[in-house]
Amino acid sequence: MKPKLFSEEFKDKIVLLTGGSGQIGCVIMNHYVEAGAVVLNMDITQPISFLELPESYCAGKPESYFLMADVTKRTDVEAAIEKILRIMGRIDILINCAGISVFTPFEKRTDDEFQSVMDVNVKGTFLVTQAVSGHMVRDGIKGVILNFGSIYGVSAADQRIYGDSGRNSPEVYAMSKASVIHFTRYMARYLSPHGIRVNCLSPGGIFANQAPAFVRNYVYKTPLNRMGTPEDLIGGIFFLTSSMSEYVTGQNLLVDGGFTIGD
Q: Which one of the listed residues 65, 173, 186, 190 is annotated catalytic?
């Protein structure tokens, strides 16, 4: 359930969310729609239940719509933003949630793997932020931008957690998320003269039916004694994109059950 203090906060807000088709993105979209917002999902994968953004929109009805776009391609991003502005007129909140990783070991990292992670996680965040912030500045929108980092953007992964599961937390993912966190700080200062706030939320491990041995190892290192869920992130997301945090910018909120306390 959404916190009561946010019951009117997002009514009629236009929220652009990248990566809204993923495990976390879908939950974020549902909560914003429940709170009265219109949510636009920019992704390369279209969920069956989502309709593409129509050329006409009936104001006052919270909905979620889909725009197919590759965040690593400037032409895709600019076309999607242009369509949103033509139909909706503005973007109030941008959430850069799109992200990928790879699971091969560092010693076998290929150029293509490295580039694909950096392209989505870093370049994608840059391109969408550039396009949306340009609109906000030009049209005088005192908007909010929220980027997605990771605990591994601030803390070195303990590879012992993964054991022989065949998975790991790769160096390129850590590099990309550290870049996003610092990009957040830079943009917070850069956009502050225009009244635009920029913050980052860094989740800990989210349960997604991982191997039992990995889950046990991860939980052992987590003071709150469990992995996270997408719903655990909503309070922080709502806080950072609402007027409750109107004096907060350039910050990275760790939502990790205490995993990074000792780092």
A: 173
